[in-house]
Amino acid sequence: MDKVQIVEVGPRDGLQNEKEIVPVAAKIQLIDKLVAAGLKRVEASSFVNPRWIPQLADAEEVLQGIARPADVTFSALVPNLRGLERAAASGLREVALFMSASESHNQKNINKSIEDTFPVLQEVAREALTLGLRVRGYVSTVFGCPYEGSVPLENSRRVTNALLEMGVFEVSLGDTIGVATPKQVHEKIGALVKDVTTERLAGHFHDTRGTGLANVAAALDEGLRTFDSSIGGLGGCPYAPGAAGNISTEDLVYMLHGMDYETGVDLERLTEAGAFIQQQLGRELSSKVLKASLACKT
Ligand code: HMG
Ligand code: MG
Prior knowledge:
Distance between the termini: 34 Å
Family: Belongs to the HMG-CoA lyase family.
Number of helices: 12
Helix content: 40-55%
Protein name: Hydroxymethylglutaryl-CoA lyase
Pfam family, one: HMGL-like
Bound molecules: 3-hydroxy-3-methylglutaryl-coenzyme A, magnesium ion
Strand content: 5-15%
Domain Pyruvate carboxyltransferase: 4-271
Number of domains: 1
Largest sheet: 8 strands, parallel
Strand order of the largest sheet: 3-2-1-8-7-6-5-4
Number of strands: 8
CATH class: Alpha Beta
CATH architecture: Alpha-Beta Barrel
Keywords: Lyase, Metal-binding
Structural class: alpha/beta
CATH topology: TIM Barrel
């Protein structure tokens, strides 16, 4: 059976966008439940400026509290050397760099132009690799920007190549505001895989307009086998107005298993993690599989 890797980003992309700050103990329980469901790659938090993302200011405490089985890779976003220092002190073996394909989103999200971001991330990557860490990269706004609208493929290609040259092992292509359609996915990812092997690319689809899973199916056709998703469908970017959650991990796993892909995830235990965070947040989450599984239990 063909395998698909899932990168669970709920504790980071999901919780960074919640109005109320989720207590550390609940974050720790959530991550432990995600791991118990079989997820092997979990983005646990962000070591960004806590004034920009107060929701994740407790990254150190979360990483200190979670169980860390040897076969699970935990990662976190780092925007600069200060972030890397904090991540390394928390014992992380992987970090993720992030920037945008569009100038305005890059500026709003990390307070720098694209040109000024390259040397900063280059230094972070160099230092992280020297410390023996694995480095992942994100390119945001590949399929559209909340401030500029459509974004030329050339921008994404340039940023993807720059991140790969810095030594990242994988670049996650972000549909930050969930505007992509399968046609666009075929066009853009189909063009990028001409230069970059599919093993080094991942799909990161937000589901603002209901096209997230259809976009995964299109990206699978283009050869991608790594996808980011978020428990319950939590998520969004506070610096991308109108961005909704990522595709839900429950819905992604359900679809992949039904298409005969192996994920290593136990859907039953995964929905327990979804039900847990839904109860913590006190509102209904967008995951359809979670809704269906809870409806079947009543
Ligand atoms: P800045 O304010 O320009 O930073 O922010 P600075 O270097 O001028 O520093 C200002 C102060 O912040 C200093 O403290 C620093 O020490 C402190 P002061 O001297 O004033 O007391 N500081 C830090 N403290 C702790 N940890 C740090 C850190 N860095 C600086 N790492 C910066 C620039 C990039 C740091 C800021 O803009 C930032 O943190 N941005 C992050 C925004 C963010 O997290 N956005 C969401 C994640 S991206 C996303 O969701 C998209 C994605 O999911 C993919 C997709 O969907 O497309 C990945
Ligand atoms: Mg995102």
